[in-house]
Amino acid sequence: MSTAVNGLALPGSCLQKTCSVVVVVCVLHFSVSLLYYFNTFQGLQEKIFVQNPQHKEVGTQVTEISSRTVGVPAKPRTTTLAPPVTEAAAAPPIVDLPACPENPPQLVGPLRVEFSDIITLDDVRNQNPNLQDGGRFMPKECKAVQKVALIIPFRKREEHLKYWLYYLHPILQRQQLDYGVYVIEQSGDATFNRAKLLNVGYVEALKEYDYNCFVFSDVDLIPMDDRNIYKCYKEPRHLAVSMDKFGFRLPYNQFFGGVSSLSKEQFEKINGFPNDYWGWGGEDDDIYNRITFRGMSISRPDGVIGKCRMIRHDRDAKNDANPQRFDRIARTRQTMNTDGINSLTYQVVEVHKDRLYTKVLVDVGSPNR
Ligand code: BGN
Fold it and tell me: Where does the protein end up (predicted)?
């Protein structure tokens, strides 16, 4: 028997054989495709959930193929993958705090500042429960824009330091600063050297934390308005602009004494402060010169916000007026490149950590004359 297909006559048995071969080839092709498909899908899953231990989805519902049996379509089942335990998952969550605002919301403005209140350091510690050891603080509600080291040159003024800590800690916290307090105490009885102690404070504070702003404050000066923010500005800042001692006015336009702030860059630009002013006076004028010789200017708060009180005291022993100060401030331009942070030498005698401050006792030597 023969069949006509498109005018071609094929013998019946031949057509049957051809059809059988085609069917077998099709079945084979289908099986191989199925096998390939399931293998690929399983491999993909392994890639996502096994080879990538950083995968962070917690409790994700995934559809998993339960069988790899060739030719048997796997019945999908739903299961819950346990999150892989990684270091990142074990660590506390890092919450991205918003940046602290330009105007801290807790500021109150003018403050009552008196030195007749009887206080103890324990009172101050109790009133500042949020301080970390070493007089460190960081706001919890926002990320401070600047990391501020407060540097206080010091010798035998415990009573003043107590008032400074009593008034300043709450102010600095309301100002939402990420800050640390460094009391740099000159050891021995040589003539006092304020500017060199400030240089030491800069170096010692940077050993502890990545500070980018430095506030240099005398221990006896207290701001009378918390809007006078103890941080750094585009230009070096003079903060003690309106002192009661000078009738709440600037004693002269170039005055840069008492309390000032410089960013790390500004401080480096002027090679820090002079190391060779022994005794009272002139070192702040030298710093003023350095700033202007490097093309910077002084920024200041207004006379109301910049009001501050000085704790009355007698002139300290070993801090007589420096007779060389006039000559020295006349030569700042020549000396500033070689006398400063690049020529600083000193020996740390002791570092003491209190909850209210870090005190660094330091040997800065004695005048070479
Ligand atoms: C100035 C001092 C400053 C001091 C202020 C305020 C000098 C240099 C010679 C003119 N400068 O006279 O160091 O901070 O008074 O007391 O003495």
Answer: Golgi apparatus membrane
Using the predicted structure, report yes or no on whether residue 69 has a pLDDT greater than 60: no
CA-to-CA distance for 364 and 277, rounded, in angstroms? Answer: 12
pTM of the model: 0.76
**Residue whose CA is closest, atom 6 of ligand 1?**
257
Between 24 and 182, the higher pLDDT residue: 182
Which residue has a Cα nearest atom 8 of ligand 1?
282
Active site residue 284: yes
User: Residue 301: its pLDDT value, please?
Assistant: 98
The residue among 231, 224, 228, 220 whose CA lies nearest residue 314 is: 220
Which residue did the predictor score with more confidence, 69 or 294? Answer: 294
Q: What share of the chain is helix, strand, coil (3-state, %, to 5)?
A: 30, 20, 45
Domain boundaries, the chain: 15-48, 121-363
3-state secondary structure of 204: helix
Q: What is the DSSP letter of 106?
A: T
Which pLDDT tens digit goes with each residue over 267-276? 999 999 999 9
Distance 257 CA to ligand 1 centre (A): 8
Q: State the distance from the centre of ligand 1 to the C-alpha of 282, rounded, in angstroms.
A: 5
User: Catalytic site residue 244?
Assistant: no
Q: Is 223 in the pocket of ligand 1 (CB under 6 A)?
A: no
Is 220 noted as a catalytic residue in this protein? Answer: yes
CB of 274 sitting under 6 A from ligand 1: no
What would the pLDDT profile of 346-365 be if each residue is shown by its tens digit? Answer: 999 999 999 999 999 999 99
Give the CATH class of 121-363. alpha beta
The answer, yes or no, to whether any atom of ligand 1 lies below 6 A from the CB of 281, is yes
pLDDT of residue 315: 81
CA 256 to CA 296: how far, in whole Å? 13
Are 71 and 35 in contact by the 8 Å Cβ rule? The answer is yes
256 CA to centre of ligand 1 in angstroms: 9
The label of the residue with tokens 């600037």 reads 250
313 in active site: yes
The response to whether residue 218 sits with its C-beta less than 6 Å from ligand 1 reads no
Q: How far does the centroid of ligand 1 lie from the alpha carbon of residue 259, in Å?
A: 14
